[in-house]
Amino acid sequence: MGRTDHAGQMLSGWAVGTPGPMRTGPLVPTHRPVAAPGPDELLLEVEACGVCRTDLHLAEGDLTPHRPSTIPGHEIVGRVASVGEAVSTFRLGDRAGGAWLRGTCGTCRYCRAGQENLCPGSTYTGWDADGGFADLVLVPEAFAYRLPEAQDAALLAPLLCAGIIGYRSLRRSALPTGGRLGIYGFGASAHLAAQVALSEGATVHVMTRSAQARELAMSLGASSVSGAYDSPPEPLDSAILFAPVGDLVPVALEALDRSGTLAIAGIHLSDIPVLNYQRHLFQERNLRSVTSNTRQDGREFLELAERIGIQVTVSRYPPDRADQALTDLAADRVNGAAVLTSA
């Protein structure tokens, strides 16, 4: 397959130093030697990397770091610069994507049942291993995605987490054909999931505090937009909570019709207030969490995104402004998805 020797080369990027609010500067520049790819790994030259709210949770300490000075970033689009000796499906120069799920044991009952997202031994890009807030990154071949060669890398990057997680969240919400979907929060993941739902004939109502996000939702075909705590104009068959705000859980549950389902999409959520059984859960309303994704989710979503021509709205930042991208994300100043890219 060929390989290029990067021994002695240094990568440049950003690492999480001391986690804390973005005003404290938790993201710090880093330079470190490039590790040679293992037998089953790809070394990618990063073209673009999406900036996910999970990266913000890691930087600010909402998620406990798994290792010190980790480089975040798990929506990675890159070109193969080097391969391990066992790699068989990628060649030098190929475009590949690295996503959040980085490894699983492959043998536990969850992996055997097609629920690898629940594997107790699962590992994650930018949490258990360095991610894409750098110019070079290692990605296991088995967890890499082949991506279109000609498309703008910045428009592909958000698909690799925001898109995949939004897709899984939509499926977890059990939206019936032609159903009524409520979306709470309308950022990177939500604006992609909404397009999938609309392509399948759903009516979509968006509740979000951002005026810019409400404008984006209307432009994509939402039937209504309103404030985050407002009631939708009709009862909902399904809802997805993308905002990491526990106070919205009872609000969304109360908006559901009988037997409706609320899926909570985030890896972190602030505390949920006390629920009232009659108002929030009775009449067989369902509450579901969403945990990571499977590779099958990724393959299905990427194929669907290409087929329906999904529109990705991005706010571009140069790689040396990753700290600003996370700061803007924390302040809800990002329209669509933030992406680090030199193009």
UniProtKB/TrEMBL annotation:
- Record-stated family: Belongs to the zinc-containing alcohol dehydrogenase family.
Which co-factors does it depend on? Zn(2+)
Q: Is Zinc one of the keywords UniProt gives this record?
A: yes
Q: MF terms per GO, please?
A: oxidoreductase activity
Residues forming the Alcohol dehydrogenase-like C-terminal domain are 191-306
**Which catalytic reaction applies to this protein?**
a primary alcohol + NAD(+) = an aldehyde + NADH + H(+); a secondary alcohol + NAD(+) = a ketone + NADH + H(+)
UniProt entry tagged with the keyword Transit peptide = no
Enzyme class per UniProt: oxidoreductase
Matching PANTHER family, A to Z?
A: ALCOHOL DEHYDROGENASE 1-RELATED, VACUOLAR PROTEIN SORTING-ASSOCIATED PROTEIN 11
Please name the NCBIfam families in this protein's record: adh_fam_2
Q: Which PROSITE patterns match?
A: ADH_ZINC (PS00059)
Q: Which UniProt keywords apply?
A: Metal-binding, Oxidoreductase, Zinc
InterPro entries (UniProt xref):
ADH-like_C, ADH-like_N, ADH_Zn_CS, ADH_Zn_typ-2, GroES-like_sf, NAD(P)-bd_dom_sf
Where does the record place the Alcohol dehydrogenase-like N-terminal domain? 38-149
Q: Which CDD domains match?
A: CAD2
Q: What's the superkingdom here?
A: Bacteria
**What is this protein's name?**
alcohol dehydrogenase
SUPFAM superfamilies (alphabetical): GroES-like (SSF50129), NAD(P)-binding Rossmann-fold domains (SSF51735)
Return the EC number: 1.1.1.1
Q: Which organism is it from?
A: Streptomyces sp. 900116325
